[in-house]
Automatic annotation (TrEMBL):
InterPro entries per record: Glutathione_S-Trfase_N, GST_superfamily, Thioredoxin-like_sf
Family in the record: Belongs to the GST superfamily. Mu family.
EC number(s) given by UniProt: 2.5.1.18
Its job: Conjugation of reduced glutathione to a wide number of exogenous and endogenous hydrophobic electrophiles.
Protein name: glutathione transferase
Statement: the UniProt record of this protein carries the keyword Transferase: yes
Amino acid sequence: MKPVLGYFKLRGWVGPIRLLLAYLEVDYEERFYELPTATPVRVKNSIVSTSESDSSSVLADWNQEKFNLGLPFPNLPYWIEGEIKLSETKAILKHISRTRAPTLLGLSVEDKAKVNVLEEVLWAMWNSLCQVCLQQHDDEELKKFLTDAKYKFNLLSEYFTGMWAIGSYVS
Ligand SMILES: N[C@@H](CCC(=O)N[C@@H](CS)C(=O)NCC(=O)O)C(=O)O
């Protein structure tokens, strides 16, 4: 049976997982869930839609399935591969890498640590971007976000000197 990736029919948290799966050419299925109606998608300052769904898709009801999938910590996205049932985006990314291309997590102890540091830095940037995009914020908060983002991007551009993030191979 193919592994199953569950999420809403949008990019969101699952985006990096889909990219990793495509990069590794993993054969898997996706299970799409309807967005809760109270979950608006905000573009600039207007709420544009509640989902990227289209009429040809059958979207499952997350609340109906949430506690019946055998996930110890039910959440979206999830990854079910036989007996392995995972939630938490970063755990899923690491599991898929570990089981199919462990070098992505770093070859040496030193490289593994570098990968971990980058993971946390980028994850924090991603989270603050999500907050600005999806939650109400005032001009002061936006200004703070932009100042911090500029500082972090500068650090990253100083850090990325090699061919790939931590050096000479994809991680
Ligand atoms: N810490 C979790 C957060 C996941 C999360 O917030 N999922 C949202 C969608 S992005 C959700 O609606 N989860 C379903 C639920 O909480 O029941 C992760 O990194 O995967």
